[in-house]
Amino acid sequence: MAEFLHPDRHHVAVLVRHGMLVMELGIVHRLFGQACSASGEPLYEVVTCTLEPGPVRTDSDFTIPVDRGPEVIAEADTVIVPASRVEYEPMARVLTPPLKAALELIPAGARIASICTGAFVLAAAGLLDGRPATTHWRSAEELQDRFPEVDVDPCVLYTDDGTVLTSAGVAAGIDLVLHMIRRDHGAAVANEVARGTVVSPHREGGQAQFVRRPVPEPRTSSTKAARAWALENLHRPLTLRELAAREAMSTRTFTRRFREEVGISALQWLTQQRVERARQLLEESDLPVDRVATEAGFGTSASLRQHFQAALGVSPSAYRSTFRGELAAQAG
User: Fold this and answer.
1) Do both 124 and 228 map to the same domain?
2) Residue 213 located in a structural domain
3) Which of 91, 92, 200, 288 fits a 20 to 30 Å CA distance from 191?
4) Which of 150, 14, 157 lies closest to 82 in space, CA to CA?
5) CATH code assigned at 316
6) Reduced to 3 states, what is the DSSP secondary structure of residue 246?
7) CB within 8 A of 29, min separation 6: which ones?
8) How confident is the model over 192-211, as pLDDT tens digits?
């Protein structure tokens, strides 16, 4: 009997184990479950499986019944391995025979992703050898020590190396799933999912996962107003001096505060927002590429191509062709 009921949808298998973090399981089902085509048809089918069907203990002292075994993985287009409390025990971070056998069921060409310390499972299976990867910042050093062949980045929210992706601790799973939806179906679909979930539609994978002062201290100035103003004026040249003036700060103070609050520099953030604006215009409008470059604040089509290629690995024209073609097919 088929484990997935809808052959026309992208099949996502979530492999959970005893000690699973409930929030991470919910993130995958909630976000992928909300992604729909222009005609309102669900784009993904998400199924939870475990190594041995039955009650699975959670990290919150209750159990969840899971009636599907690892065989579901053989039919998956994407396999996601969330964290387990077991992985927080240093001596238990090894690949058991049942888990090894389950991972061997992943079809060739399928996408596999981990959330938080689920990266230890992928690393133990050799799936991260020679690849960039991340995990919760508290566990990053141990991941690197145990698996020196993995290129561990302890600072980023997530990594994407084609068919293998990893994310940082718990909530970074939201960023990872939105990134996968965006990669599969474009910014418009991912943004709609984000709006429905009331989360930020886009945090770049390279954004810092751990900021020592994530919110300003009481009665200290924020850079929030400057960011909101910048988003309304992306089409024009913007300087640090202008942004700092919106908050009545010196450029030096604004630069420091911005990095403390956002995790990256103001100029890096501006470039990310301009790339995102260009993506939306390429997907949702028929504006020529040079006009998209102007509206997104890149000035010239050459500048747009340079930044777009650096961020996404494709040209603006190729990106538009991919997503406009897909949307047209869905509408038809």
Assistant:
1) no
2) no
3) 288
4) 14
5) 1.10.10.60
6) helix
7) 14, 46, 48
8) 898 887 776 555 544 444 43
Question: Are residue 122 and residue 180 in the same domain, yes or no?
Answer: yes
Residue 162 in tokens = 């084609």
CB-based contacts of 281-285 (< 8 A; 24+ apart in sequence): 282/316, 282/319, 282/320, 282/323, 282/324, 283/186, 283/187, 283/188, 283/320, 283/323, 283/324, 283/327, 284/188
Q: Compare 68 and 201 and report the one with higher pLDDT.
A: 68
Q: What is the DSSP letter of 216?
A: P
185 and 106 in one domain? yes
Model confidence at 104, pLDDT cuts 50, 70, 90, reads very high
The 10 Å CB-count burial string (b at 16+, else e) for 297-330 is bbeebeebbebbeebeeeebeebbeebbebbeee
Residue 4 inside a domain? The answer is no
Residue 166: closest CA among 110, 111, 99, 115 = 115
Q: Report if residue 218 sits inside a domain.
A: no
Phi, psi of 159 (to 5 degrees): -125, 150
Q: Which residue bears the tokens 């492999």?
A: 15
Per-residue pLDDT band for 243 (boundaries 50, 70, 90) equals very high
Q: Phi, psi (5° rounding) for residue 11?
A: -90, 125
Chain CA centroid to CA 38, Å: 22
Angle made by CA atoms 253, 259, 265, in degrees to the nearest 5: 100
Q: Please, are residues 197 and 34 in contact by the beta-carbon 8 Å criterion?
A: yes
